[in-house]
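Example 9 (inverse folding). The structure is encoded as follows.
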């Protein structure tokens, strides 16, 4: 036998034996009674509340929820959601628009509908309960596509007062028009998202047509901005999420560029996290973990503050068999929130609902999305 052939066969035999041993070590032995048989871990460490989100008082056999774009909750009995109008089974919107801002209790029952503000809302993009203000005002970003408004609104927690309104003039009519100008402090191009500092300042991601992050003080006075259009460092194409960690670093969801960008508080570029398919939102929790929403992968992705992917969980969405009837699946998740009890809420844009997820009694804390980081 050729010596080189014999040596090759010996090496191959050792490699196969080693591989078999490794496979054996990683395989769960069902005969031993250990491990889980079956299951697909689609809900991670959570139990979904089946069919949690209930109809509004004026829904009937014809009209139901349309596209739910945002959710925010601190108090589990006051879960705020915004949506783009009631819809019928043919996908037609009811006019005039209604139920733009709704409030649910812990059972998903709609306890309030702020009909008094329907006339100034068209595409409310996301909603926020201010985590630092004891009065817990409610903020809404009105994207304005298909309608006259591009603005940021601040309401009292009970919805009776409009406390602040900025933006809304002048209104560009297209992406091309918006990107052909240098926008002023309140000249928005389909604004999208907010994030808050403990001193009352806030950031606006502006947004779909403009390509910038703007900082205002608590009275809505312009302070600074950073970002331009493009795909280089510090450039954006669809700012669709903002978060601030305990060190005041700013995380920007650069959706159409499939990445997250990280900045110092003054807007100095720090890092890029590439190859994240169509991220749509971001949440920094109390452990300083960074959770990113994957709208096309239907996943929640956990990163450390250096951008290392640590864990992910998620469920099916727009499959050939359709959505799963509210038992846990995401369908283009658009915004997430966590209340003081640790319940997770997900606005399913295509699912026309808000999903609620409660941690399992034996859940691994490292795999749970914690309450918002307090700085």
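The amino acid assigned to each position is listed next.
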């Amino acid at each position: 036998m050729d010596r080189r052939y014999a040596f090759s066969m010996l090496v191959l035999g050792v490699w196969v034996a080693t591989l078999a041993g490794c496979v054996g070590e990683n395989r769960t032995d069902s005969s031993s009674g250990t491990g889980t048989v079956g299951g697909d871990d689609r809900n991670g460490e959570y139990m979904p509340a089946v069919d949690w989100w209930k109809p509004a008082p004026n829904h009937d056999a014809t009209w139901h929820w349309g596209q739910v774009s945002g959710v925010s909750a601190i108090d589990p009995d006051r879960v705020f959601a915004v949506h783009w109008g009631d819809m019928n089974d043919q996908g037609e919107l009811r006019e005039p628009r209604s139920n733009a801002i709704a409030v649910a209790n812990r059972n998903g029952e709609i306890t309030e509908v702020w009909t008094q503000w329907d006339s100034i809302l068209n595409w409310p993009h996301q909603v926020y309960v201010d985590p630092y203000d004891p009065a817990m005002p409610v903020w809404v970003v009105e994207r304005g596509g298909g309608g006259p408004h591009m603005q940021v609104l601040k309401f009292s927690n009970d919805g009776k007062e409009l406390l602040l309104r900025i933006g809304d003039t002048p209104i560009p009519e297209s992406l091309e028009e918006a990107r052909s100008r240098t926008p002023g402090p309140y000249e928005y191009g389909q604004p999208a998202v907010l994030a808050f500092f403990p001193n009352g300042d806030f950031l606006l991601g502006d947004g779909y047509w403009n390509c910038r992050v703007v900082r205002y003080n608590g009275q809505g006075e312009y302070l600074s901005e950073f970002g331009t259009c493009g795909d280089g460092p510090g450039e954006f194409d669809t700012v669709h999420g903002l978060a601030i960690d305990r060190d005041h670093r700013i995380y920007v969801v650069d959706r159409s560029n499939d990445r997250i960008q990280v900045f110092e508080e003054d807007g100095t570029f720090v890092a890029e996290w590439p190859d994240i398919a169509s991220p749509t939102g971001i949440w920094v929790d109390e452990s300083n973990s960074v959770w990113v929403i994957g709208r096309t992968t239907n996943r929640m992705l956990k990163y450390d503050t250096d951008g290392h992917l640590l864990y992910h969980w998620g469920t099916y969405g727009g499959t050939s068999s359709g959505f799963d009837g509210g038992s846990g699946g995401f369908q283009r998740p658009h915004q997430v929130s966590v209340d003081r009890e640790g319940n997770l809420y997900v606005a399913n844009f295509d699912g026309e609902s808000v999903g609620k997820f409660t941690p399992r009694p034996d859940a691994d804390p490292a795999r749970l999305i914690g309450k918002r980081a307090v700085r």
